[in-house]
Queue: 2 jobs
Job 1
Amino acid sequence: MGANLALNIAEKGFPLAVYNRTYSVTQKFFANAGDLASQLTPTETLKEFVSSIKPPRNIILMVPAGGVVDAQIEALRPLLDKDDMIIDAGNANFDDTNRRAENAQNNVEMFLGIGVSGGEVGARNGPSIMGGGDRPAWDRMAPVLEAISAKFEGQPCATYMGEAGAGHYVKMVHNGIEYADMQMIAEVYGIMRDGFAMGASEIGDVFSKWNDGPLQSYLIEISAEVAKAVDEKTGKPMLDVILDSAGQKGTGRWTAIEALHRASPVTAIDAAVAARNLSSRLSERKTGEDIFGAAPQSINRDELSLDVLEQALLAGKVACYAQGFAMLDRASDDYGWNLPLPEIAEVWREGCIIRSAMLDDMATALKKDADQNLMFANAFAERMKATHGGLRKVVAVAATYGTPVPALSAALSYFDTMRTARGTANMIQGQRDYFGAHSFGRLDQEGAHHGPWALGTI
Ligand code: 6PG
């Protein structure tokens, strides 16, 4: 990704020095850079790298998140001058970015943490960039970051999110949404494969068709491509030879954990993280199937149609984004970041993995009222009214047949909870007061109250 980002920067007319700890990698990169080589200075040592840049320097780090970033900063620091800037463009944990930003204040360098989304291709052709750090640092880098970013109707998808770790925080939530979006697509794929006995390429055609409608998104588009691809070795559909055990680098898990701290549930993301974890328990799942038997495979097509599956994905997606934006709203208050929610939706419209047709409408809705749950904004309330029946149907039928749809179920429960004015927490409060005298509020009176079960009265 670092190589692609460097080529993108060079292509936009910014000369840059490049360094990789393995010099042969740098040499190979330079040799393959074609016309862009004239913009690039390959360097062999960190010292040579730093001294080949005119101060004040802007140094972009693209290394694996975690200790490697700290080690790289430590190695660079003695070589830097005042006003040089380090920009961490990896998938850093926002807590680490907060700490690094604070450390930078005690040292010479300026520091920016930028979330960069779009994978390898995005890095080369235009990623979505979420920046965090001191505003002057962002302003200094903005011309480069805006130039290399994806554009939505000419508008750069590179935006300042707030102080310190704000950019990496937004990127983390982006990734959480990415997990949920991917999981819901996988669940619907499962219904088509197992329930409808559809072949992979036929499923690919369905995704392609959906990609021409309201579900239009990068993830639906690539799901179609993935489903239609054929394995050169066996001639079988690629999907039929890929192990059903999903990897993860941790950003989805961070989102789920952080959401618990913020008391802002992201249940579809939680379900997606759990589903990835359970996917890796291959032999355990095999044992489960041996004991209980496989779930009945064929779903009666009269019970469920492809249109209903499309509706379910639409509703699930809105609920999942609503959770993500609600979490960002809460984090903005808790951390004092003043996160620009409409601009976050805007910066995700192009370049990033979760880009989709819906994000422009989300930006419009959030501009009107950023604090409101996205499901309640007019455009999305209408969409939920039109599609939650489909989501309900899919979850109900899947449950009847024993097909796991954890993220879609979580999205539906979230929707149902958020449209239930009188829930059942009165029972929880009664229980808490019973065993712990924790008190409860009453419908008809202010203040804290106890029930007749209070110590000494029962
Ligand atoms: C992106 C992606 C990118 C990546 C992550 C997630 O926005 O470009 O989110 O950051 O795919 O590494 O990967 P895992 O699925 O391995 O957690």
Note: Residues 157 and 399 are 40 Å apart (CA to CA).
Job 2
Amino acid sequence: MKINGTYYRTIWCEEDQGHVSIIDQTRLPFAFKIATLTCLEDARDAIRDMLVRGAPLVGATAAYGMALAMRDDPSHEHLELAADLLFAARPTAVNLAWALERQKSALVNAEPAERSALAYQVAAEICDEDVALCESIGEHGLTLIEAMAERKPGETIHILTHCNAGWLATVDWGTALSPIYKAFDTGIPVHVWVDETRPRNQGAYLSAYELGQHGVPHTVIVDNVGGHLMQHGLVDMCLVGTDRTTRTGDVCNKIGTYLKALAAHDNQVPFYVCAPSPSIDLTLADGLREIPIEQRAREEVSHITGLDAQGNLTHVEILPTHSGVRNDAFDVTPSRYVTALVTEKGVIEANEAAIQAAFME
Ligand code: MRU
């Protein structure tokens, strides 16, 4: 995807020193800054402090974290320590564990002297694969938008999305926004309702930013508006991403996704979840009970960041200082509210038989 006309991925490796570059997403949309990860701890901090976020990009960053760790100390002890340190950075997105497992199984039987080069190679493969998976999700999701466009010839297709499951959440393309970019590029008139996604505003800050960079018409709405728009026939479909989907089709995603799914169900609006295979956890059957939900800091709820009248970036408190806060970062949408999963293998039903047929070799 392009930022002001220049092609970027969200993460890349500087060939000469092995350092890893990322787009610092805590600065968007107010400033476009590249940050450099020079060691294992930098990668852990970037994930934990959300300079990178979005399940696939968290996995890709963890993979490069392992490469940085192996470059500095390829011993077996350090391999285990690095994997444990990265694993603890964020608990919900299964892509993190998936990427670490992939690195560990590649590295564990290699000679220490070979581990650094191998870890960089695996990280690069994970990134390239993510781009391919997301582009494929875009192609499959496009068929859903095309079908909708055939039912409404000449009319704009209104798509609601929650959080940021665009290219900033992946290495490129995105999951939920990938079909929208494909539809826009083929000339289908699309318009996106962007949930602001409190408390961290990934919709308002990130989805709006990247849709704007691509020229896709969009409107930011506060999180409580979606149900009302659906009741008035103003949403043709919902497209969201996922941090972890169980083998039974329960979908864990950014907090607030469940309420949108309920509203979609009540209003017969199709609710699609774009899920690349590394986000599907085949070991889990019950999303509500088995997926760990990340609890984040009070400050994300008590404060908000924006530009003041002079254009200076400002961080202001919006709560009484004595008020308690609870900040669950994700929720689980039971599979019965999911119309279908859009995967790299195609559009499939959100149930065990369909997921098994597609992904359990
Ligand atoms: O807390 P975040 O910003 O990492 O949460 C991101 C989401 O919930 C996304 O919808 C999900 O990771 C899918 S991204 C392709």
Note: Residues 231 and 351 are 27 Å apart (CA to CA).
